[in-house]
Amino acid sequence: MKKLQFFFLAALTVLFVSCAVESNEKLSVSSPDGVNKIDFVLEKGVPKYAVNHGEKAVINPSKLGFVFKDGDNFDAGFKVLESKTTPIDETWEQVWGEKRMIQNNCNELSVTLQEKKGAQRKLEIQLRAYNDGIAFRYIYPEQGSGDSIFIMDEVSEFNLASGGNAWWIPAYRDNRYEYLYTKTLISEMDTVHTPVTFKCDDGLYLSIHEANLVDFASMTVEQTAGNNLKCNLVPWSDGVKVKTKAPFKSPWRTVQIGEKAGDLITSYLILNLNEPNAMGDVSSWVQPRKYLGIWWGMHISKYTFWESEKHGASTKNAKWYIDYCQKLGIDRLLIEGWNKGWTPAWYENAMHMFSFTKSTDDFNLEEVVKYGDSKGVKLIGYHETGSNLINYLAQIDSGMALYQKMGIHDIKIGQVGSRLNMKEWHHGQFGVNYYRYVLKKAAEYQLAVNFHEPIKDTGERRTYPNMMSREGARGMEYDAWSDGNPPNHTLNLVFTRMLAGPMDFTPGIFDLNEEQGFNNRSVHTTLAKQLAYYVTLYSPIQMLADLPDNYDGHPAFQFLKDVPVDWDDTKVLNGEIGEYVTTVRKDRKSDDWYLGSMTNEEGREFTVSLDFLGDGNYEAQIYADAPGTTWQNEPEKVAISTVVVDKTSTLPITLGAGGGMAVRFKKL
């Protein structure tokens, strides 16, 4: 990876403000383009901030601060010691990602406060104004006391200036983040996970989230009154929100701001608020990939996770899948259920005792690895913890060392269960620290990680690029054994959950029959929409989730062979939350572009400009819904065609209800 290129101008333009700032005097910082502005004020000793986008108020004056244990309020009675503004302008390169070169350009206002009375403790508040949003965080300095600090509440408010609609999933539910999104008025929100997305009555699109979540509780957002929202930290089982000591830093609280829905997708504010790559060159073992898995067959009950006559992870079945990997040109295979400890009740809340080194009686790991190597196919390892972290952490080194010995560099790690160790929330401080520990441990054994039942993404892939992808929402598996995901589900995901980062959604189902003979299931898409997912639902690792024989000889499989998982650039051509989106991405390794377009329950027609293409001609290889195809009517039918285009061309797009379109623009 190229070295980071820094262009800090702070030494030339840092502005120091006198410590004699009076109460109610306003300090301000604006984005480099001047559109987004943050105002900071002490209102009778209470710190508050407000945000404007041009002439539009985005956030009305909102409180800042903390409440510590025993009613120790740390949110009032302050004076300003000093403030300074610092411009930041750097360009850095992602190891992998949806955009290769990213500009981190903002202006930062740092305000140091001190209590007027009592212990006269200090608090620094950093506020950053970006062209695509704003962020703030707290820095509590070393203050001569080594005592533990127990945070009982964070006061941070987001008092939205405009009403509108919100798209959200509820916090504090047993299935973690795996819920369908609800659309309500902002004033009717529950306490919700982030990212939470809004379309305001004034026409702006907003998303509230957090960045660089380290050794802190995850933030949820609660509606307090009308359009007023507040930070709600996920507690430990004893009720404390955060257990820490001085000095400490909070995560960044973020508000992404767009004039179009697609602006939220192409915002890299979350990544920019994380630390640079701490791992150096990892290209020899962190590699974006597509993969097959003995996975869909288990979810539709063709196979079992546990030892049985239908055990999916048998040596015989693994070799059959490896043969298909070779035939289809896919060089990774995920095998789940190969180890001891799986039972028919493996997913139920209990302290299940998995082994991470001992194979089942019908599976020989070394033999399967050698067979895969002979076919040019590497295995992806799997650790299912069942949320019994006591058991997992006792074996984590031996389990990961086994994979390293076998030449395996990819691992999926599951945490099925409503609580970690049947006690703590997955997204509390305990969980945050656990996931970060496992990520760093995986790096010791050169393992790239795919977390399921994870902590939400807050951009740590910039710092630890072995953090490849994660679940963290309702994925394709719900189409195997439930009523399924409705056609608008993924149209919600791209504007909500996926603003945080990559998702292992596990797309690619070609057999769309309502009943396959194993389980009734409901895949509410067309096949063309399944293809479009590989462009619209970003992940550097993409599963080809269906049974491999359903791909064999299918003409639409060519798109899955061609489509990359690592990109040079990304653009959103159109979109509305929960309704439709059209995304184009440029391959990092060629001049080719790819397009994915998809819709909800409503069929659509529109035309898009191809002005994103480079010079010269391209062959547009189009995979579209066949005439009359919808998710309810012959969804498996795909119309495949080609046409020569250039950057002056337009492309008509016709989407059936629940449908999609996928296009490869191959440079001629």
Summarize the structure.
The protein is an alpha+beta fold and 668 residues long. The chain folds into three domains: 268 residues, Distorted Sandwich (Beta-galactosidase, Chain A, domain 5), CATH 2.70.98; 184 residues, Aldolase class I (TIM Barrel), CATH 3.20.20; 146 residues, Immunoglobulin-like, CATH 2.60.40. It contains twelve helices and 38 strands.
Core attributes:
668 residues; TIM Barrel; 36% strand; 12-stranded antiparallel β-sheet; 12 helices; 7-stranded antiparallel β-sheet; alpha+beta; 3 domains; Immunoglobulin-like; Beta-galactosidase, Chain A, domain 5
What is the highest CATH level, the class of the largest domain?
Answer: Mainly Beta
Whole-Å distance between the termini? 29 Å
Largest sheet: 12 strands, antiparallel
Oligomer: single chain
Tell me roughly what share of residues is in helical segments. 10-25%
Question: Can you tell me about this structure?
Answer:
This protein has twelve helices and 38 strands. The chain is of the alpha+beta class and 668 residues long. The protein has three domains: 268 residues, Beta-galactosidase, Chain A, domain 5 (Distorted Sandwich), CATH 2.70.98.10; 184 residues, Alpha-Beta Barrel (TIM Barrel), CATH 3.20.20.70; 146 residues, Sandwich (Immunoglobulin-like), CATH 2.60.40. Strands 1, 2, 9, 10, 11, 12, 15, 16, 17, 18, 22 and 23 form a twelve-stranded antiparallel sheet that branches. Strands 3-4-5-6-14-20-19 form a seven-stranded antiparallel sheet, with no helix packed on it. A hairpin with a 2-residue loop joins strand 4 and strand 5. Helix 5 packs parallel to helix 6. The N terminus is likely disordered.
